[in-house]
Design brief:
It is a single chain. By secondary structure, this protein is mainly alpha-helical. The longest helix is centred in the middle third of the chain and has 36 residues. It is flat, with a radius of gyration of 22 Å. The protein starts with a helix and ends in a 12-residue tail after the last helix.
Length: about 160
């Protein structure tokens, strides 16, 4: 249990620094954009409505973003760039970061212990498991790239 608590504590500090830093970078980027040539575009009524909605209702999105993969950085950056008040952002950061740290500390350590035991007791099976996992990841990446690529039917956009 001490190992989980120590790992969760370390991960919690890491996520607070990383997500808080992303929020700060977003805040600075938003401030810079408000002083740039984009200031006219981001002062429209539509943008200001979106900004008010994020400032008011964005905290639950930030907290839940820590349970996703790949969305939390965008959510924290957007919260910063849209000037979410710290009184709303910080509780979402603390709760979401704690959930993230606990999940990764428990599940992550569990997976590492299973892999360590597998390698120690049955090395061939451990190597096979890692190879299968790597092949699965490569397959998913290749499948997504193939789906994202435009069809190569030989036709050109101009009809020639």
């Amino acid at each position: 249990m001490d190992k989980i608590a120590l790992t969760a504590g370390a991960l919690y500090v890491i996520v607070l620094l990383r997500a808080g830093g992303t929020f700060a970078v977003g805040w600075l980027a938003g401030a810079g954009a408000r002083r740039s040539r984009f200031a006219e575009r981001i002062s429209s009524a539509r943008f200001e409505r979106a900004e008010r909605a994020i400032q008011r209702w964005g905290a639950p999105v930030v907290a839940v973003s820590f349970l996703t993969v790949g969305f939390q950085t965008a959510a924290n950056f957007l919260a910063g760039s849209m000037r979410m008040p710290l009184r709303r952002y910080l509780p979402a950061l603390f709760v979401g970061g704690a959930a993230w740290a606990l999940i990764y500390a428990t599940a992550g350590l569990g997976v590492l212990e299973v892999l360590a035991r597998l390698f120690a007791e049955r090395t061939a099976l451990g190597v096979s498991a890692v190879v299968v996992l790597l092949l699965a990841v490569c397959g998913v990446v290749a499948y997504r790239r193939r789906r994202a690529a435009p069809p190569s039917g030989g036709a050109t956009p101009d009809g020639a």
